[in-house]
Amino acid sequence: MKVLIVNGPNLNRLGMRDPSQYGSETLADIESHLRERAESLGVELDFFQSNHEGAIVDYLQEASQDAAGIVVNAGALTHYGISLRDAIADTGLPFVEVHLSNIHAREEFRHHSVIASLAKGQIAGLGWRGYLYALDYLVETIERT
Ligand code: DQA
Prior knowledge:
alpha/beta; five-stranded parallel sheet; 5 helices; 18% strand; binds 1,3,4-trihydroxy-5-OXO-cyclohexanecarboxylic acid
């Protein structure tokens, strides 16, 4: 089973960017936590980060073909990225939306997610561990169905 881990704009800056909201782990640290967990779950991961919505759309069109699910932190695209939403919908894959910060406790423009209604669920505010919980949930759900 292959799970896609997709990160949107500015998440390449984790570790340096506003640690009070996003913590001190870098994206590479998060990737290594996830790879460790994936190994124990016996699943393959494919990682992708881009600051460009179209590049994420291209990636999803290609990589979703042999994937079983997606963990996505779309960054700011969460709040307005309609072409990203359409691309995720088009994959037909189950996915979990992750945010490091609690978007519902922040500025009002962050409260709305254009992808949430398509997601299995959303994890927000639990920091980098949210990615692990999302992976655990996805793998368990996919294996059960
Ligand atoms: C974020 C929350 C978004 O509002 C923000 O634009 C991000 C990161 C999070 O992980 O908390 O870039 O998705």
